[in-house]
Fold this protein.
Amino acid sequence: KTAFRAIDIDESGEVDYDAVIMAIEALGIGVTKTEVHDVMRQMGLFSESVFDFDLFRDLLLKVYGYRQPLQATLDNFALMDKKRKGHINIKDLRQLVSSAGLKDIVKEDDLDQMVHFFDRDGDGTVDQEDFVKIVGVTGLE
């Protein structure tokens, strides 16, 4: 949602193709414009299309699919591990779920259970290897 708000300059709830491309480049997703166009064609979209948040999110999720899933997951972990401490905590996972627009789907109890299940040493954090397992189970990528 943060990325969408950043490109929705006039706060109309809609953005154009150029703004979407700018956001994809700024997010560093690592796909080419050709790949974005391929995804758009598959979705029945064109460069003249107008994107609301839901369409923007759907496009981003599909664009992520063009990347290597493991590399995308590792990149997401690195984004959350801002202090480069080698692990993330429940607060970091909450931010991921919120920014992915999945707060209604992935509940607080689910996050607690995931951390508890994947936290091998009981310190309340998840390291990179554990995070890859969580993403594989939930589809958060």
Q: What stands out?
A: The mean pLDDT is 82.
